[in-house]
Amino acid sequence: MNVTIIGCGYVGLVTAACLADVGNDVCCYDVDQDKIGILESGGIPIHEPGLHEIVARNKAAGRLSFTTDAHRAMTHREAIFIAVGTPSGEDGSADLQYVLAAAHEIGRHIEGFTVVVDKSTVPVGTARRVRAAIAEQLAQRGANPMFSVVSNPEFLKEGAAIEDFTRPERIVVGCDDDVPGERARDTMKRLYSPYNRNRDRMLFMDVRSAEFTKYAANAMLATRISFMNELANLAERVGADIEAVRRGIGSDPRIGYHFLYAGCGYGGSCFPKDVRALMQTARDEGQTLRILDAVSEVNAAQKQVLVDKIVARFGEDLSDRTFGVWGLAFKPGTDDMREAPSRVLIAALLERGARVAAFDPVSMKEAQRALASDLRGRPEALARLSLVEDQMDVASKADALVIMTEWKAFKSPDFDSLKARLKQPIVFDGRNLYEPPAMEELGFEYHSIGRPGGG
Ligand code: NAD
């Protein structure tokens, strides 16, 4: 099948690479010339395990191409995926300017029947707006090809995106109930058939329900995290261990083990903005989603929990202190720094006069950009931040080590070496990587989330 993907980000590039890998002819279109330049010259603009190999293989086989030429990308295509960003607008709603710009572009170029696939996470009613934007452009050029807009939200996780795309738990597709909709449904079935072989994972529904499903899923996951974080804070007060509690409740199949880890808050490009967007959708309808209000509020507070522990230990004035930070990306397996809890922690430490030395296995470049933007206009604070290329060097002469992301390389470090480098053997662990008794035995003062010991 001839397919185009609009937007070469985390979702677009993975979708393109995986669809090309099963034999489709895939064209990737992006307005970012730098990104297309990197891709054309054999590079990958994002970190996603396994992606580089698939892109290289399919580019070499002539099944995957990259362009900034909209006409080339959008003519003679059976399906065109919209996979552009939908960041938060000022009021928290999803900013649809990129989606609608893509729709206009589609309307300017398509010639024959085209299935337009909304893969971006978009609020209920967006497919209708995409359809109108395409129709407006078609009318302007007096063209009349048939098209259908389907909703096909993406559920991949950064860091495991290839596996998620190629072995999906479900493929949600919202189609219209008309003739083009029926045709689109067939196209989507054919396109996804390589990933749908041993059992039927395709869930067809109406377009609005498909759009809603993505927000409902992310809101539920964010709720589980904030729920556990709030319980973790109480567990600390009453002397219980949230990790034991997690195992205790996770064993109930009605609850399950996933997404029950207490920590220093969720971040990333999806949960925070999708929760906000769903809340705004509700407000537009005159409803308040009280649970999600609390989920957001708890998460904002949780990003401060380690700061509070550090202040409780060292005092409000941190001007003669140095902190080593392990982990900058919002989660392991990605270089994505969007809404990462590390940004809140680092800004708060610098604000109090501390020096910070930080390390991340893959997101140093992204982190440099994100932190420089957070600290714009505060060159004096930025000067107290150093990004260090060696994991252990971060701890050198630091008053404490702070762990913000649960990268594998942090799970079983050389504790003796760590202890020797730190000025004082103190660890603040935002991801509960170690066992408190073991840390005590090793001679560390260990502060974690929702567990006894340390503080
Ligand atoms: P991203 O920011 O990594 O990439 C978006 C890309 O779209 C950029 O390369 C940008 O240059 C390009 N773009 C913007 N406007 C364009 C236009 N008019 N024409 C062509 N290209 C354009 O975004 P992402 O993280 O891949 O997310 C894309 C969508 O998928 C969002 O709606 C997001 O919520 C959703 N989503 C993301 C994830 C994830 O883990 N990142 C998971 C599921 C769903």
Automatic annotation (TrEMBL):
Coiled coil location: none
Domain of life: Bacteria
Active site: 270
Pathway(s): Nucleotide-sugar biosynthesis; UDP-alpha-D-glucuronate biosynthesis; UDP-alpha-D-glucuronate from UDP-alpha-D-glucose: step 1/1
Residues that, per the record, bind NAD(+): 30, 35, 86, 121, 158, 273, 338
Gene3D superfamilies the record matches: Cytochrome c1, transmembrane anchor, C-terminal, NAD(P)-binding Rossmann-like Domain
Gene Ontology terms describing biological process: polysaccharide biosynthetic process; UDP-glucuronate biosynthetic process
Record GO terms (molecular function): NAD binding; UDP-glucose 6-dehydrogenase activity
Residues reported to bind substrate: 155-158, 214, 259-263, 267, 331
Span of domain UDP-glucose/GDP-mannose dehydrogenase C-terminal: 324-436
EC number(s) stated in the UniProt entry for this protein: 1.1.1.22
Keyword tags: NAD, Oxidoreductase
Classification via Pfam families: UDPG_MGDP_dh, UDPG_MGDP_dh_C, UDPG_MGDP_dh_N
SMART domains for the chain: UDPG_MGDP_dh_C
Catalytic activity annotation: UDP-alpha-D-glucose + 2 NAD(+) + H2O = UDP-alpha-D-glucuronate + 2 NADH + 3 H(+)
NCBIfam families with a match to the protein in the record: NDP-sugDHase (TIGR03026)
Family as reported in the entry's similarity comment: Belongs to the UDP-glucose/GDP-mannose dehydrogenase family.
Protein name listed in UniProt: UDP-glucose 6-dehydrogenase
